[in-house]
Amino acid sequence: MSSSDPASGTPRPEVPFVVIPDTPSVLVTVTDEALREVAHGMGTIETTVTPGIYRIEQRFAGAVATRFVEVGDEAFTERLPLPRVPAPVPVRRTATTHDEHRAAALRWSRQSTHRTGAPSLMVLLRNLRRASRLDPYALQLTAESGAAVDGGEVGWRVDEQQGWSAWSGPLAPGGYRLRLRRPSGEGLPLAQALWVSEG
């Protein structure tokens, strides 16, 4: 890639250009100010470019992060933090984590909301859309026979202000279903199979 200095008409020298993402499984694409692709690949990018403005895009697990950088006459290196990916669990460094959800997950994975004893299963229902109302009893836990084992509303702990609802308790090893308490909009009884192992 070469370009000319508009004032003198002489070619501008290319400089080393390196992009280092947090993990090698990130797809990185670099484009110039005319939106032409300069380089792309998984993990670290090493090439040469002329001074100017560049767009660096990284894609990882469905998340996309973009930044613009200015390259001068000296070698350029940019380290990219991992894009914040959405996750169903409140894990740090994800786009969908909240401190109060993390605290609830830690508390109720150690303490039962239903019955006494150490929990062998914990379910955390989170509201990630603050404009939406949380239905704290939307889910029901049933045995293989279809009989509820979660104690109904009494078995759940709810904090509507923080946007979570939790159930945890000691269950015998075996198969269970986590299902919608009411059918979905299409009238379908949606369920997720669960297995509680010994210990």
Structural commentary:
The protein has 199 residues and is mainly beta. It has two domains: 15-80, Sandwich (Immunoglobulin-like); 99-196, Sandwich (Immunoglobulin-like). It has one helix at 99-110; strands spanning 15-21, 27-31, 37-42, 45-49, 52-60, 63-71, 76-80, 121-126, 139-143, 157-159, 164-169, 174-180, 191-196. The strands form four sheets. It has a four-stranded antiparallel β-sheet with strand order 3-2-5-6, with no helix packed on it. Strands 4-1-7 form a three-stranded mixed β-sheet, with no helix packed on it. A hairpin with a 5-residue loop joins strand 2 (27-31) and strand 3. The longest helix has 12 residues, at 99-110. The radius of gyration is 26 Å and the shape is elongated. The model has no long low-confidence stretch (mean pLDDT 89).
Based on the model shown, name its key terms.
2 domains; four-stranded antiparallel beta sheet; Immunoglobulin-like; mainly beta; 199 residues; single chain; three-stranded mixed beta sheet; elongated; 6% helix
